[in-house]
Amino acid sequence: MSNDNFMNEDLVKTKVTYPILFKRLWPYARREKTLLFLAIFAVFGGALVARMVPALIGYAIDHGVKGKDYQLFTYVAFAYLGLEILRTCFSFSNSLLFQLFGNRMLFHLREDLMNHVQRLPLQFFNKTPTGRIVTRLTNDVASLGELFTEGVITVFTQFVVICSVVIALALISWKLTLISLVMAPLFIWASFYLSNKIRTILHEQKRKLSVINAFLAENLNGIKVVQLYNRVQRNRDRFSNLSTSYRDTNMRSIYAYALMQPIMNLFNAVTITSALYFGGLMSAENSIAIGSLIAFLMNIQDFIPPLREILEKYQQFQNSLTSAERIFTLMDEHKEHELENLSSPKSVRGEIEIRDLNFRYEESLPLVLKNVNLHFRPGESIALVGRTGSGKSTFISLLQRFYDAPEKTVYIDGLAIENIAREEIRHHVGVVQQDNFIFRGTIRNNIGLGDPRVSEEQIKAACEKTGYMGLLNRTGRDLNSPVDERGANLSVGERQLIAFARILAFNPDILILDEATANIDSESEHIIQEATREITKGRTSIIIAHRLSTIEQCDRIVVLNQGNVAEVGTHQELMAAKGMYYQFASAGEKSPLIANPESAETTESKMEVAE
Ligand code: ATP
Ligand code: MG
Q1: pLDDT value at position 78?
Q2: Integer Rg of the chain from CA
Q3: Nearest residue by C-alpha to atom 26 in ligand 1
Q4: CA–CA separation, 321 and 442 (whole Å)
Q5: CA-based angle 50:54:56, to the nearest 5?
Q6: Is there a domain that residue 343 lies in?
Q7: Which of 11, 313, 30 is nearest to 159 (CA)?
């Protein structure tokens, strides 16, 4: 994938609207309904109590001061204290309940998303940089969380506050309310306009950050290639470009934010001035009591701050909509296609039949496998040979259902492979790859993978059979010895042995082996040779073989040439036929028929380096 592609994705303006957002989040919100309703209750309670304070003060002035009833102040003081305590309680429960609610909702969402992502077809992972998926699951979910805990909650709470203020004002004097707020629509329009501007900038900011993230993830994962091919300088330049452009966007957003403040202040000044001026006039005419005017002024001061908060959150809100859209897009990615009524054979004899198989990765791409017809008997060991790119790995990916072969072309034990669930297939078909993934932990964990079905005895037996135990003993280690990330502290041969032991411990019915071509010392080679013989014993095995010694050891040999089956037969038969295989075998290890070790499919060579 190119960087442009995913920049484009991030550039797309969000199609998610608020109704869509609420509709899609509702299933998660519904699971925490009680919390939600309690929180909403707290918001209304808080707003009501807050409006009672100015009313109380106004009352004290009109009756206490003017009526010279100083006893009243004692009551008012206690009432005031009571109201403030109540307000604090409401505000505390409001934020606590909403936070709880938001967090729980996100928890459900994240779990759902992770479950979904794990079931996506490999094709999706080929096309999507890992960095981007990680961002979806972490950053985007987090910003959706902010949208909830900050955005929705604040907007809702403050909106209720504004409504309560307007009601309180109108109850005191609707005339004065109209006069004071006559300019409000203009200011509100101006601030939303500016807010939209800010939003566009923030959108760009986020997009740029995501490009930086993916760039970093990709290049740090491929640091070996970066250093190997002297890309350090070029990457540094590119990073510096990305970083500068990100900084400039940040500056623009800072300017826009700075402008927001004066607009709000002006608005505040205009409302309060008109309330004071016209309120004063009305008071002089005795059409409003002084206490009520003071209550009015107190109330109107509460009008602007919530509006300001709404505006602030509105941007965040909009920004998070993009996150929401990305999350929803990810959720809408189609899972691996599965038929209904799948069969689940308990054990598999290991008969494999391929009938008229044609396969291409995508509609637009050429055929990778062409008219393949093969039949492997149970227990047979097959060597798969062919030039690089001839379709060997593709063939075995189909057997594992990593990609879907056309229906009724691949059969295991006479059962079309699409009728067997993927998990089931992967349980029966075990694979040792060229480049085995080694996890950080201990040797034991790497063999048993923490699967409870694999007992300690099985692990030990597997190590014995592959000869790994002997190697461990000789080097003074045991199953508890630590393994570094990606097996950095193990030799290539050892990593291969761990993979063999893993396969033996899991004991699959069909074994696929992508033979290691890396240069290993002759002792390791010997051990691996032995181990290979051991693990292929008694089960159908398909070995993508590069070494003549391994190939000869197999029952039959399949030669692939540009997706076609060129030759099938035993070593003797094919030698006698004097075809492609004969040329290879007589040329020895250096034959062009066989993938050379350097071009072998290792993670590094497959990885695309971002330009
Ligand atoms: P090697 O010996 O180098 O491992 P191979 O025989 O295993 O080669 P495959 O990996 O099966 O070759 O590739 C066969 C063809 O399919 C190649 O032309 C390759 O470009 C193409 N191909 C492989 N994987 C994909 C994919 N995920 N999407 C599209 N095309 C692919
Ligand atoms: Mg391959």
Answers
A1: 93
A2: 35
A3: 361
A4: 43
A5: 100
A6: no
A7: 313
Tokens linked to 571: 């070593």
Q: Is 385 helix (H, G, I), strand (E, B) or coil?
A: strand
Order of strands across the sheet that contains 352-359: 369-376, 352-359, 410-412, 415-416
Q: Could you tell me the distance, in angstroms and rounded to a whole number, from the CA of residue 410 to the centre of ligand 1?
A: 19
| Residue 315 confidence (pLDDT) | 66
pLDDT value of residue 177? 93
Task: Indicate which CATH number applies to the domain containing 412.
Answer: 3.40.50.300
Tokens of 13: 């303006």
The structure tokens 């070494």 sit at: 547
Amino acid in the structure at residue 451? D
Give the per-residue pLDDT at 454: 84
Which of the listed residues 357, 360, 368 should we mutate to test ligand 1's pocket, taking the one with most ligand atoms within 8 A of CB? 368
pLDDT of residue 327: 86
Per-residue pLDDT at 147: 76
Q: Which amino acid is at 166?
A: V
Q: How far apart are CA 291 and CA 301, in angstroms?
A: 16
Distance CA 541, CA 586 (A): 25
Q: Are 503 and 432 in contact (CB under 8 A)?
A: yes
What amino acid is encoded at 42 in this protein? Answer: A
User: Residues of the chain whose pLDDT is less than 70?
Assistant: 1-14, 315-316, 318-319, 337-341, 434-435, 516-521, 523-524, 588-611
Which pTM was predicted? 0.59
Domain shared by 305 and 431, yes or no = no
- Give yes or no: residues 403 and 291 share one domain: no
Which residue from 363, 384, 394, 562 has its CB within 8 A of the most atoms of ligand 1, so it is best to mutate? 394
Domain membership flag for residue 353: no
Q: For residues 129 and 172, state if they share a domain.
A: yes
| 221 in Cβ contact with 235 (< 8 Å) | no
Q: How many A from CA of 558 to the centre of ligand 2?
A: 15
pLDDT value at position 81? 95
Residue 566: partners with Cβ closer than 8 Å, 6 or more residues away: 386, 559, 560, 579, 580
Number of compact structural domains in the chain: 2
Q: Are residues 223 and 182 in the same domain?
A: yes
Q: Residue 116's domain spans which residues?
A: 17-331
- Ligand 2 centre and the CA of 561: distance in Å? 13
